[in-house]
Design goal:
The complex is a heterodimer of chains A (about 600) and B (about 300). Chain A has about 600 residues and is α/β, with parallel strands linked by helices. Chain A has three domains: about 5-250, no CATH class; about 330-415 and about 505-603, Rossmann fold (3-Layer(aba) Sandwich); about 420-505, Rossmann fold. Chain A has 24 helices and twelve strands. In chain A, helix 2 (about 30-55) packs parallel to helix 6 (about 160-180) and helix 3 (about 65-80) runs antiparallel to helix 4 (about 85-110). Chain B has one domain (about 5-220). Chain B has helices at about 5-30, 35-55, 60-90, 100-120, 145-165, 170-180, 180-185, 190-205, 210-215, 220-235, 240-260, 270-280; strands at about 135, 140-145. In chain B, strands 1-2 form a two-stranded antiparallel ribbon. In chain B, a hairpin with a 2-residue loop joins strand 1 and strand 2 (about 140-145). The longest helix of chain B has 30 residues, at about 60-90. Chain B is globular. Chain B starts with a helix and ends in a 14-residue tail after the last helix. The chains are: A alpha/beta (about 600), B mainly alpha (about 300). Chains A and B meet through helix 4, helix 5, helix 10, helix 12 and helix 14 of A and helix 3, helix 4, helix 10 and helix 12 of B.
Chain lengths: ~600, ~300
């Protein structure tokens, strides 16, 4: 079937499946199985939130059980005392859940990792204390009982129609969740998972993005909480303790935390599987632990990918491209800017790592920064990128002072960069990775999850822009390959493409040649040369003197935090001081001559 | 405030400090926050109760048994939940040690489950003292078991602090926690170091079981509470610092007892959570921690 038709039919097919599941009671599904399916849906919702925060954004917020509890209590309280309308109650539950989710996530905003995991886990333990402190309105230790049957627009829903509500809401959430994950806004979360250095270099405010992840991840838990409250008309803090926290984590690990529908699969396995039978009760804790341990070690991606691979094998595979011919396409004109670094000082304690460095980088020129280890190159680069703030001195781009801006704001406005070790988030294609360079251009969350016309418009524009970059880099044939799994040289090009996608005024390349073989360096030299022709301002921080001499226009030699010498590459190569401190003395070798030829040949 | 209250708080805080030492040990040697760390102490309390009552061993022998059990358990956790991840990991994922968080939570859950099956959920006495009566001390009243816990925490903190700064293993851990790759190049066997850290942390955590249990009783649910509050103590003091862990633990314990006394016991854990949040907002590196420079 043609893929475009598939894309069109997908939503219809999805709606059909949801409708079918919703209609099951009229096709003979009995009450017991209705309840089981509702439990699967509820757990699946809670797990999907964890998949977003942990699986995609890499932030292990274990407080999902507390968020679930917040939704359930909010729903129970509202339905009992204020207004009993299933839509309104779910809305309130989701809002309260978001609030709790953000509080639970607060420890992670600055630190992430363990702090977040254990801090949010802590919140789960606080649920009974908190409920008891509130006392009567939430029913204290006895639990909140006598929650009325759900109503929709004043009509009481019997268990069949409540089942329909649960299925439809769950179906709708997973559709939106899928739309989020399979979009540039979803890629943004994966960028976050690859670390703050990367996300801020792409102009993403990690602080806001983390909050967003916690908030969105809390929504389904709040919805599930409302369902929980209505299901039995009773909410007790004992339903949301350690056991639930572990159940959610185990279901996520089992189904695959980097998946969308794996949440439902994991939930189904744990709700309907042998674990649920009472014979296992004594051993259920041990079994959960074993799931987490074995799953965490052997199936870090859960069982869903295994099933997917199995399915993929049954289908005829797409031909895998093996050619690595990298084109020599031209880059579209780049509006480079002028970078002025004047008298910048950065000290760590008593060590002045950068001690009064001034340099200029201009559009259409390649400015190289060389120097032995410890000379301050990397520190200077980090000062320019905004990871460190300079103690003294000024940084200007096109005359605007940028020295006080955060790394992410600098990235949004002026600076694109690559990393010594290419930093590429997992599970993204080359196309999607390059596109993450242009996150600032992507449409908002709402337009994304609802697939509004503005989203489709942006998709078309981005395809044109991204394909042009890939063509110029000569990696178009790799567009659909997983970027993180490519060879080093190609990953470097992908990173370069990502930096270009942000349309930077200044392009910082941190040791782009390290680890590459000669052919790859030659190729890279060609790419950098063509970028210069296109008008980019390129700052090259390099160890590889051959690359420097072959491509650069101006070379600054750093030693002990200060500029030792500067000038054209040939002058530098002849400079006695530089020779002594850095290069050693030797004739220009053949390799370097080759590089110069390669470079000139592409001009 | 009365000295009696302070001493009661110090005794609770001393336990948090001991748990925090365990966290520090695996963080510095293996780069892993071991969620199953407090569970070693929980197991230690049960083993101590069993060795004291069923076996009728003398206290030093009880401690030896606890240490051995803890060392083995620590090694098992490292070999099953930590080592495989290090060898399987093809590329460094997102945050540090996320995979280990899942697997050590798994290990801790297995330990909890087994403890329930073996010992049940009711608390068991750890009869270290025939008669754990209150004695006068510094103008307050305190149980002998409380004094013993406080003394143990002080002594262990001092020993660990000196050991980290002086011993080969301690220095290797410091090197490892600074820069794993550089340490490997310097000839530090990080594989062995990781195992050693878990064995030592397990032995220490379980070895104090008889002392902790004399105060808290042996009960399965102890592990989770200690895991969380010990972690808050660690955060308060600054990850990696044993002195910080001691100060953080003691301060937390005293604060908790004061809160319970003046606001009511429902506020105890809430207060600890608030402290945790405040530390993270105001001084995320903790009292004795150092701010890490960012490296690209």
């Amino acid at each position: 079937m043609n893929p475009q038709l598939m894309t069109r039919l997908r939503p219809i097919g999805y709606a059909g499946v949801v409708a079918l599941v919703a209609a099951l009671p009229w096709l003979g599904l009995d009450l017991f199985w209705m309840r089981q399916l509702m439990l699967v849906a509820m757990l699946g919702l809670v797990v999907s939130g964890l998949n977003l925060t942990f699986g995609y954004a890499g932030e292990l917020a274990l407080g999902q059980a507390a968020v679930y509890a917040a939704g359930a209590y909010a729903a129970g309280y509202v339905a009992k005392n204020l207004v009993n309308d299933v839509v309104l109650v779910m809305l309130v539950a989701a809002c309260v859940a978001v609030l709790v989710g953000v509080v639970a996530g607060a420890p992670g905003i600055r630190l992430g990792g363990w702090m977040l995991a254990i801090g949010s886990f802590f919140l789960v333990l606080l649920v009974p204390d908190f409920v008891n402190l509130i006392g009567e309105p939430l029913g204290g230790y006895e639990g909140l009982s006598l929650i009325p049957l759900p109503q929709l627009l004043g009509v009481e829903l019997d268990q069949y129609y409540f089942y329909v509500v649960v299925v439809v809401v769950t179906g709708a959430w997973f559709a939106l969740f899928r739309n989020l994950v399979m979009s540039p806004r979803g890629a943004e979360f994966r960028v976050l998972s690859a670390g703050e250095t990367l996300s801020s270099s792409l102009g993403v405010s990690t602080y806001r993005l983390k909050l967003k992840a916690y908030a969105i991840g809390a929504v389904p838990a709040g919805l599930a909480g409302a369902m929980f409250a209505y299901l039995d008309g009773y909410v007790s803090s004992t339903s949301f303790g350690l056991h639930t926290a572990l159940l959610v984590l185990a279901a996520s690990v089992l189904g695959g935390m980097h998946t969308i529908y794996g949440a439902l699969l994991g939930a189904a396995l744990l709700t309907l599987g042998p674990m649920s039978s009472s014979a296992f009760e004594d051993y259920s804790t041990v079994a959960f632990g074993a799931f987490l341990l074995i799953g965490g070690v052997f199936l870090p991606r859960g069982i869903t990918p295994l099933l997917r691979n199995l399915l993929a094998r049954l289908q005829p595979g797409r031909p895998v491209s093996t050619s690595t011919q990298h084109g020599s396409g031209r880059f579209a004109p780049v509006a480079g800017g002028r970078l002025d670094v004047s008298a910048v000082v950065k000290a760590f304690g008593g060590n002045r790592a950068v001690d009064g460095v001034s340099l200029v980088a201009e559009p259409g020129r390649i400015t190289a920064l060389i120097g032995p280890n410890g000379s301050g190159k990397t520190t200077l680069l980090n000062v320019v990128s905004g990871y460190y703030l300079a103690d003294e001195g000024e940084l200007r781009i096109n005359g605007d002072e940028v020295g006080q801006l955060s790394a992410s704001r600098r990235a949004r406005r002026h600076i694109g960069r690559t990393f010594q070790t290419p930093t590429i988030p997992p599970d993204l294609s080359v196309f999607d990775t390059i596109r993450t360079g242009a996150l600032k251009k992507e449409v908002g969350l709402l337009a994304t999850v609802l697939r509004l016309p503005s989203y489709h418009r942006r998709q078309r524009d981005a395809a044109v822009e991204t394909e042009a970059i890939m063509a110029a880099l000569g990696i178009s044939d790799r567009a659909d390959d997983e970027a993180a799994a490519l060879p080093l040289g190609t990953r470097r090009l992908v990173e370069l493409g990502r930096a270009l996608a942000s349309e930077p005024a200044v392009l910082l390349l941190d040791e782009v040649a390290s680890g590459l073989d000669e052919d790859e360096v030659t190729e890279l030299a060609g790419v950098i040369g063509r970028l210069r022709t296109a008008g980019a301002t390129i700052v090259l921080v390099e160890h590889n003197f051959d690359l420097i001499t072959s491509v650069s226009d101006t070379v600054y030699v750093l030693a002990e935090g200060a500029v030792l010498a500067s000038g054209g590459p040939l002058d530098i190569a002849q400079d006695d001081k530089v020779r002594q401190t850095y290069l050693g003395s030797g004739p220009v070798d053949r390799k370097r001559a080759d590089l110069v030829d390669a470079y000139l040949g592409t001009e | 405030m009365s000295m009696t209250l302070v001493l009661a708080g110090l005794a609770i805080g001393a336990i948090y400090a001991i748990i925090a030492y365990g966290y520090n040990l695996t963080v510095t040697t293996a780069g892993v926050l071991n969620f199953a760390n407090a569970h070693m102490t929980m197991i230690g309390t049960f083993v101590a109760a069993w060795a004291l009552t069923s076996l009728g061993l003398a206290v030093p022998l009880v401690i030896v048994v606890c240490v051995l059990v803890g060392a083995v358990l620590g090694l098992v956790v490292e070999l099953t939940a930590v080592a495989p991840l290090k060898s399987f990991r093809l590329r460094r994922g997102g945050g540090v040690g996320h995979g280990e968080l899942v697997t050590t939570v798994g290990a801790s859950t297995i330990v909890t489950g087994l403890a329930y099956i073996i010992w049940g959920s009711d608390p068991i006495q750890v009869p270290l003292f025939d008669d754990d009566r209150r004695v006068s001390f510094l103008g307050g009243e305190v149980r002998k078991s409380d004094l013993l816990v406080i003394g143990t925490a002080l002594m262990l903190g001092l020993v660990l602090h000196v050991w980290t700064q002086r011993s080969r293993l301690g220095l290797a851990s410091l090197a490892q926690s600074e820069d794993r790759d550089a340490a490997m190049l310097q000839g530090v066997n990080v594989r062995l170091l990781s195992s050693a850290g878990f064995v030592i942390a397990g032995a220490l955590g379980s070895g104090v079981g008889v002392i902790v249990g004399a105060k808290t009783l042996a009960v399965v649910s102890l592990a989770l509470v200690l895991a969380i509050k010990g972690f808050v103590a660690l955060t308060l003091g600054g990850v990696g610092s044993h002195v910080g862990a001691l100060v953080g633990g003691l301060a937390l314990g005293v604060g908790e007892v004061m809160t319970a006394r003046w606001l009511g016991s429902d506020y105890r854990s809430l207060m600890v959570f608030v402290v945790f949040m405040l530390v993270l907002l105001v001084r995320p590196q903790g009292l004795f921690g150092t701010k890490e420079g960012r490296t690209v």
